Amino acid sequence: MAEQINPWSSAPKVDINRLFEEFGIESFAAQKPLLKDQPVFIRRDIVAGHRGYEAISEAIRMKKPFHVLTGFMPSGHPHFGHLMVMKEVVWHINQGGRGFISIADREAHAVRGLSWDFCDKYAREYMECLYALGFKGEIYSQRKNNLLKDLAFEAATKINFSELSAIYGFGPETELAHAMSVAMQVGDILYPQLVGGAAPTIVPVGIDQDPHIRLTRDVTKALRMFLVEDRGSHISIRAKKATPEAIDAVAKRFKGAKKYEGHIDLPAGHNAAEVDEIVRSIEQEFGGFGFMLPSSTYHSFLQGLQGGKMSSSVPESLVWFDDTEKDAKKKIMGALTGGRQTLEEQKQLGGEPEKCSIYQLNKFHMQEDDKELAKMCEACKAGELMCGTCKKETLERVLTFLKEFKEKRDEVSHMAEW
Prior knowledge:
Elements: H1 16-23, E1 26-27, H2 40-43, E2 47-51, H3 54-62, E3 67-72, H4 83-94, E4 98-103, H5 105-112, H6 116-132, E5 137-141, H7 146-156, H8 161-168, H9 176-196, E6 201-206, H10 210-223, E7 226-230, E8 234-239, H11 244-253, E9 258-259, E10 263-267, H12 272-285, E11 295-299, H13 325-333, H14 343-349, H15 357-366, H16 370-381, H17 387-412
Parallel strand pairs: 3-4, 3-6, 4-5, 6-11
Antiparallel strand pairs: 1-2, 2-11, 7-8, 8-10, 9-10
Helix pairs in contact: 5-9, 6-17, 7-9, 9-10, 11-12, 13-17, 15-17
């Protein structure tokens, strides 16, 4: 039985390799050579897996339209744990993607019990951070977006409670609003295609959010009027819930098409991707959505300063973007490292950077230079770099970042309004 993942857990226990195997997530390694000017999170394999990223890498290379969306639940102040997804979104926008951000206030209200006023307060902080990083696009509130609500309702017609139980572990005690928030998540992922046209859509997330991606891909298929399959000797176009008029329109569109009861066959020589694009446009002419399957990337978690996942439920595990210098210093200097028990052992055996929250913070965000990061790692393993020295150097980088980030946020604060 496949392992369930709880997207709302503050401390998920996730074996990434096992989940990749069980749920069919592909390694990102094959995609790396296809991307030029790779950012840190791709160069350093922080983005480890994907679903359907081939469509995105092709769109980037061929300069075709694509969308990029992710969501933030405004249940607390933004912090370093959120920074990776924000950077991924902005990078994809800079590669030509059209940007969308969902402020998941309905989810925060349903799952965390936050008031709408607090949701709006935290949402503005997230918006400031995104704009400060260079985000361009649409940022919307779930509860204020009527198009999204209608789309989520339509998506919900393709979701049953047995699926929610299998994917999320929902039971009789699960509140209806929590289940409704899942349909809203599906709507979020499909929303860019609703307002921006059917196109590849990349959703950068942590591995704990994969249940939403899997469900949305299933719903996307269920919403289609037709299923296009390459059978080798021919292309099969199977009608699902298409009207006779729509079926006739598809058959008339392709030379050599043979119409049967419930499906159409095209002779060899047709390209399945091109056929699917035409079929999707016909779906839309007859009132369907014609959505493309959304894609996703999965990044590894930034280790918390006290071990485990960086989570707002453990304040000592993270640095808030609004932390004072005193608070940041206390957290960084008190962080768990991969150092040995004594200075003597550290010099003899060297440290273990792969277990060190300070090294991970540098790998993810604080050290852009790959050569400098490699030197830090090697010096640690050789017993030449002591934890105290490393913490002090990292603290200076963190304080510089916080100062500069605060200045950028202040410059764009006027944009953080609905």
